[in-house]
Amino acid sequence: METLLCARSTIVLAALVAALMGSGTLSAETTPLAVSPGSASGTEIAAACPTFSWSAVSGANGYQIVAYQVAKGTSPSTNPQELKQLWTVTLPGSVHIWTPPVGQCFAHGGRYAWAVRALVGTTPTNWSNANLFSVERAPSAEEVRAAIATLRRYLDAKETITKASVSSASASPRPDATSARTLARPRHNTKEKGKPIRTRQNPLGLKSARGDDVSSLTEATTEPAVGSPSLSVTGNISLGPNSAVTKNGALYLWDDTVGNMALGESALASVTGGNSRLSYQASENTAVGSKALYATYGSSSNALDGSYNTAMGYGALRSNTRAHDNSAFGAEALLENTSGYDNTAAGAGALRASTSGNYNTAEGTFALLHNTSGNVNTAIGAKALELNTTGSGNSAFGTKALLHNTNLDNTGVGFAALYSNTSGQSNTTVGFKGLYYNTSGTENSAIGSLALFANTSGNKNTAVGEATLFRLTTGSKNTAIGYGAGWSVTSGSNNIALGYQAGSALTSGDHDNIMIGHPGYAGDSNVTAIGKTGNQNRIFVAGIYNVTPALSSSAESVVVASNNQLGIVSSSRRFKQDIKAMGKTTDKLYELQPVTFRYKKSVKEAIKEGRDPKKLPLDYGLIAEDVARVYPDLVVYDKKGRPETIKYRFLAPMLLNELEKEHHLTQTQQVQIEYLEREVRSLERQSNR
Q1: For residue 28, which phi and psi values (nearest 5 degrees)?
Q2: Could you identify which of 167, 277, 395, 669 might form a hypothetical disulfide with 411, taking C-beta atoms 3.0 to 4.6 angstroms apart as the criterion?
Q3: Residue 279 — very low, low, confident or very high, per pLDDT cuts 50/70/90?
């Protein structure tokens, strides 16, 4: 009758949802299908924050989900007013799986319905079929308080009885096998099938919250036969080393099932594997919380199967069957785990969807929530690695770190570090939102808040310092160290920026630059800049003075431009225009007055060091102010327009021009002299006649 009512309610509910929200104008083929949670006839689920999934609609740019509360004991077909809309959410078109935040979770024991529709352009489709579901009831506060009180009494009694047993065993010179088995932990697979448990009576009469005898000290003289009742009875609070009991208080455990502790409704409910004797019984498990380690049991092949697990919290390790050495602390932590081992989850929903992943550690609400088979992941912080499913070898420390990651070997430390990473691999970031938008970029390293913030697919970049390479999106093989270094580069590659805001003026695709303490300029490529104008006034480079280059025959003088650019002076005709002979432009060279002098700075240093400045070597040259009056273009001026130095390199060709003029004059005079000499000889011959 209830099933029929649920089916009828579903049909009416679907119609009602469509009527309330609008039927839309698109065809039924474009309507999404609500997949989970729930079904048309209604399904009971464990998760208070279930994951919603639905079929995709081609061309959809968004989806809307609506959730309703259905009052218990009522039917929407006769009482539509009992439907209470809880929330409506709109999601992007690329999302087909969604888990609501904590604020939109459902209450345990409630009955609910939901539907979904697509948004194609600005037009919504019809609403999907409505799925009904209910959330399992959580233990009441009264049951929890009673369970805690019972646990305390049990532990006190256990300590007293253990001391008495040890004392009795010490006094007996030859303890029998039964006494030894009571005092020591039994080994797996050492009991003969059908051999009864020999335990002590229950001297304290310990009771569960519902009045059941829960002490493992109850005597059970015979092994349960095939077909006997299940270990767990709904509503029991079970305690003790072998703590699952039935309503009559008898221990339905095989005699080599040892060291298990269960506290909560249906905790460790399947610990014996049903009524079939197993070679290796599940042992040394601790389950605290309703349905904690619900499905765990041993095996016939491996002594570790189903053992050494710890689960604390509602539904923690609920689906675990034969997996071993797992620890889950928090509601629904490691909920879906079946065969994964050596996992640790602390926090509500941590590693919730993991089924076969191994060696994972998750600490924080929803940390590694969707991980299924990924291995050797570490997630510390709320929602860290939340959407990771199969990626392995990742480490995330911080809220939402590596939230969307699905690939391998990434490390994110800091709030939302590597937040958007999906297929990127072998990335490392330490700092607030480092590599935040990285999706497919690989082998990037970002250390500092907002380092490589906008990178999406760039590879092999290194950024150290706050906001370093902040705008880089697709560029690769860039290295930036220092606050804001390489800030504006977006797609450029092979840049090196070292220092505060070094290379910060580079833009777009600027590439192959080396900026050390220099911001660079927009459009720079293949440029090396060291130091910032106005900040440095001296430079020292070792390995130059008193060193002759190996290829000295090809060596060239280096000149410095007023913008501090180094280079050589090109002399090829292909670099020049307006070529003319100097002619008379060098006629004033003779007005320049060469002088000898000593630099004031050298004199001051000599006096400071106690040396005689008059013994310093003389320098030879010109005075810039004097040259400026004759040849202004031969002088370099400072920013205030004062003469600073002389372009001595120009003097050589100017002197050569004067030398050529003198040579030409000398040749002309030589011709004249020879002519006059001939004339003189001719006159001498005439006078001698």
Answers
A1: -65, -25
A2: 395
A3: low
Supply the pLDDT for residue 218: 33
List, for residues 511-538, the tens digit of each pLDDT value.
Answer: 999 999 999 999 999 999 999 877 888 8
Helices (H), 456-552: none
The Cα 378–Cα 413 span in angstroms is: 11
Query: CB 290: neighbour CB atoms within 10 A?
Result: 27
Sequence-ordered alpha helix ranges (H) in 368-407: none
Which tokens go with 257? 């099932």
Residue type present at position 25: T
Quick one: which of 540, 539, 564, 576 has its CA closest to 653? 576
Contacts for 494 with CB less than 8 Å, ≥ 6 apart: 476, 477, 478, 511, 512
Alpha helices in 558-650 (DSSP H): 600-608, 624-630
Using an 8 Å Cβ cutoff, are 345 and 329 in contact?
yes
State the distance between the two ends of the chain, measured CA to CA, in whole angstroms: 166
Phi, psi of 147 (to 5 degrees): -65, -40
* Domains with residue ranges and CATH for the chain: 2-135 (2.60.40.10), 140-168+195-325 (no CATH), 394-545 (2.150.10), 585-689 (no CATH)
pLDDT digits (tens, 9 = 90+) for 236-278: 334 433 344 332 333 334 444 567 777 777 777 776 554 444 5
Residues in the chain: 689
Say which residues have a Cβ less than 8 Å from residue 194's Cβ, sequence separation at least 6.
223
Q: What is the DSSP letter of 80?
A: G
- Comparing CA positions, the residue from 328, 341, 246 lying closest to residue 293 is 328
Calpha distance 364→191 (Å, rounded): 42
| Whether the predicted pLDDT of 163 surpasses 70 | no
* Strand intervals (E) in 313-363: 327-329, 344-346, 361-363
Neighbouring CB atoms inside 10 A of 284's CB total: 18
H-state helical runs in 172-206: 177-183
List pLDDT tens digits, range 303-319. Answer: 788 888 999 998 888 89
What are phi and psi for residue 553, nearest 5 degrees? -70, -20
d(CA 677, CA 683) in angstroms, rounded, equals 10
The answer to whether the beta carbons of residues 254 and 279 sit under 8 Å apart is no
Six token digits for residue 143: 């049951």
If you ran DSSP here, which 8-state letter would residue 223 be given? P
